[in-house]
Amino acid sequence: MERIEKLQELLAEQTIDCALMLYHRDVYYYAGTARPASLAVTPDSAVLFMRRGKGWIEAESQLTDIRDGGLKAIFEWAKENGIRGGRVGIEMDLVPANIYLRMREELPEAELIDISPLVLEQRLVKDEKEIESIRGACRIVEESHRHLPSVLEEGVTELEVVAELERIARMHGHESFAILRKRMETEMGAALVLSGENLEIMGGYGQVVTGAGLSPAFPYGPSRRRIQAGEVVVFDMAVVNEGYHADLARTYCIGKAPPEAHEAHSALVAVQDAIIETAKPGSAASRIYEAAVEKASELGWGEYFQGSGEQKGTFVGHGLGLEVDERPLLSPKDETVITENMTFTTEIFMVHPAFGEVKLEDTLLVTGNGPEFLTTLERRVMEI
Fold first, then answer.
1. What's the pTM value of the predicted model, to 2 decimals?
2. CATH number of the domain within which 102 lies
3. HSE value, Cβ hemisphere, 13 Å, CA-based, for 200
4. Is the pLDDT confidence value at 276 over 90?
5. Residue 350: strand, helix, or coil
C-alpha cells in the first residue's frame, strides 16, 4: 500500500482528482496483480475493477476495495463519487483513441491529463523487493551467457543459438518476452545473436544494431545465417524475473577474434568505467552520456562509437524495471537526476568494418557511492 499512498500524496499535491490506470504494468505496480483489471486512485481512495479472474485477483492484490466491472463500472463509480469534472489522469502514452473518446463522452466536464510521467517518476526508484527481483533476473540471463560456449560452433545458425539460449533462460525462470512501453513501434523477443554482416544492421528500432531478423514482418533479431569461425558474435538478452528485467550483452568469437575487435572492446571497458565514475547520485543522465562520448573520442574510437556514419545511436544506456525501456535514458536530452536505487544499463558498442560490432551491456544499481554491477560476467571478448 505504500506505493498507492505515495501516489495519493502526489495526486493531492498536483490537485489531480483521480488517476485511472488501464495498463497492466502500472496496475501491477500499485495493485499487485497483472490480471484483467483497471485501477482508480483518488487522494483518499483506491478501487480495483476486475474484469475476469476474480478469485485470483482477490488473492494477489493487497487492495481491499475490489469490484467487478470494466470501463462502464469505472464511469459509474466516477459519477457517483463526484468525478464528473475535475482533473482526471490517464495513461496518455498508452490509452487507445477509442477509449479516450469514450472517456471524453462519459466525463465531458473533466480535464483529462497525462498521468504517465508522474507514475514513471515514482517507478524510477526501486524498493528492496524490486531490486531483489532484478538481481534474480541477472542470475537468469548470466546462465544463458554461460551456456553459449556449448552451443556456439561453426555452421550453427543465429536462430538455432537463440532458441537454445532462450530455452536455458526459461528453464531458470525467465517469464516472458521483453516488455516495451513503446510497443506500437515493434514487439521484441528476448534475445539477439548477431554475426557477420548482420553486425552492421541498425534496423531502425532503438538506435542499436538489431540484426536482420527472419522476415520484413519482424526485421530485428537472429536470422538463419550460419556463423563462421573467426567471426565476431554478439549475444544480447533481456530476461524477466517476477516481472522485472535484466539486460546483458557480451561479445564472442569462434577461435581468434580480429585484433581490432579486442582493441575496440578495451575502449568500451574504459568508456563503461567513465560512465560508472560519472553516474553517481546528483549527476544528470545527459552528463553521463557526455562522459561516455568524450572518453570514446579521447581513445580514438569516437567515429565508431554507438555506430558509424549516418547510423549513430544517441544514448549509452537505459532504465529498466517492469519494462525494459524505462527512464532514465542516458542521452543528451534527458536531464533526469540520478538518485540512489535507480536501475539502468550501460548499452555501448563499436561498429567498424574490420569486425562488425563489439558490444558491452550490463545492468547496474545506483548506490550512495555510485553504480553497482548487478550483472557480473567478465568484460572481454570471449574466444571459444
1. 0.94
2. 3.40.350.10
3. 12
4. yes
5. strand
